[in-house]
Design brief:
168 residues, two-stranded antiparallel ribbon, 6% strand
């Protein structure tokens, strides 16, 4: 049995959003317990030229949606980057998960050889459906999920590997 692109995307993204929702909830609880202004966590960055926690969640949301839009030709659900609280981030995750669940398997499977163009400000990247998922979409997804996790961990939130893996 061959692996289908749907199996490499939607279930993986859903698991990641489940984990992210969990470690964000722990971050919110940590702030409340320690009397920390939630904005201190929400605006935290690992380095000055990196996006803050809110931006990391927004990029995960955007990247997963755009992956399925590019692969499956489904209509995007625009989400402006206006999140300013943990509740806002959880709402964005819920909306993204609803979008992911709405994409039919048949829109994604069979697109392994589809031509995908990703237009960047100074160049265009060209992929097949498979190379886009394996070489861009999944690494980008994990980069931003990992960075969101690392920001919270760096700020002292008591989360561990099982939180990242979604099993805590």
């Amino acid at each position: 049995m061959t692996t289908q692109l749907y199996d490499l995307t939607v279930p993986v993204f859903l698991r990641g959003f489940h984990a992210m929702s969990g470690f964000l909830a722990k971050g919110e609880a940590f702030a409340a317990e320690k009397g920390i202004d939630p904005a201190e966590l929400l605006t935290a960055r690992l380095f000055e030229d990196m996006a803050p926690l809110t931006g990391q969640v927004q990029r995960v949301s955007d990247g997963t949606r755009f992956c399925l839009v590019r692969l499956g030709g489904v209509e995007n659900v625009p989400m402006p980057d206006e999140e300013a609280s943990f509740a806002d981030l959880q709402d964005r995750i819920a909306k993204t998960v609803a979008f992911l669940k709405s994409v039919p398997r048949e829109a994604i499977d069979g697109k392994e050889e589809a031509k995908i163009e990703l237009k960047l400000p100074n160049r265009t990247l060209e992929f097949t459906g498979s190379s886009y998922v394996l070489g861009f979409a999944l690494p980008n997804f994990y980069f931003h999920v990992t960075t969101a996790y690392a920001i919270l961990r760096h700020k002292g939130v008591p989360i561990g590997k099982m939180d990242f893996l979604g099993g805590a």
